[in-house]
Amino acid sequence: MTALAGRYPRLFAPTHWAWGGIDAAFTVTPMPDELVTNVHLVGFVGADVVICRDAPGHWFLPGGTREAGETVDACLARELVEEAGAELAGPVRILGAHDCHDPKPEPYRPHQPHPRKAWLWCAADVRLVGPPTVPDHDAEPVEEVRAAPLAEAAALLAPGGDWLPDLLALAADTRP
Questions:
Q1: Which of 31, 57, 73, 80 is the most buried (most CB within 10 A)?
Q2: What is the C-alpha separation between 53 and 2, in angstroms, rounded?
């Protein structure tokens, strides 16, 4: 892990997600399934990365919160269709996870672990097959989906976390 931390220092630096009040640290140590609350994907279409833009104009990687009893694979497949109108076109690789501590008194959803949880980050080849199918009750309507060159995707995602360009680089550098 030391070599990876040296190569991707922003990714491995402890971070605070102000939007959720969550402290997080990236690790490549496998996280127990019962701690994984969220699953996100660096999806590749050729050499390009699939990114999504919400109504306020923020760019993000597709993924989201696991439903009660949902497997990681099922969550990933559902979130890809909902947020990116995409489907898997190859095997999923786990890049690592953010090991998170949530100081709020209650979990985000009743079925989730608390106060410790994990956000899983994966990579895979995908196909864009149609428009996003985000349910009407979802708080994050998707306005745009695109497959962008790595550098462009990194620049568009960076305002969401200075570690995101390092995550993209890790995904690209470890592609088979």
A1: 80
A2: 33
